[in-house]
Specification:
Number of helices: 4
Radius of gyration: 17 Å
Strand content: 5-15%
Order of helices and strands: HHHEEH
């Protein structure tokens, strides 16, 4: 499996700072798998150089989205007396929608998401 972005690209070109280096490889691998699924494997054997930056940025954005999901304990309610906090997680539908939005933002104009016959 190919991982489409490395930590150096993430910090220097994408200007990311959210994901710690020790978590980036795992998260970018999951992002790359998702991208392969959405592009019907078109990226697995390489891609045109003109799309290189878009592919790498998409990978970084998806990795950040996954990282935020991992650490998100979105507080849905909080009580102060006898301290109580209730967390809510994003629904699977919401997560899927976010990933599709990110993928379309970066790869939508490349033809890599084309669902028809080549």
């Amino acid at each position: 499996m190919t991982i489409y972005a490395d930590y150096s690209f993430y910090t220097k070109q994408f200007h990311g700072s959210l994901i710690p280096q020790e978590r980036f490889e795992y998260l970018s691998a999951r992002a790359s798998e998702y991208m392969d699924w959405q592009t019907f494997g078109r990226l697995e054997n390489g891609f045109p150089e003109e799309y290189s930056e878009k592919v790498k940025k998409c990978c970084c954005a998806l990795a950040e989205s996954e990282f935020e999901l991992e650490r998100s304990g979105n507080i849905s309610s909080e009580k102060n007396g006898n301290y109580s906090v209730t967390y809510s997680l994003k629904s699977e539908e919401s997560q899927s929608s976010e990933k599709k939005r990110i993928t379309a933002r970066y790869l939508g104009s490349t033809g890599l998401l084309y669902r028809g016959v080549d």
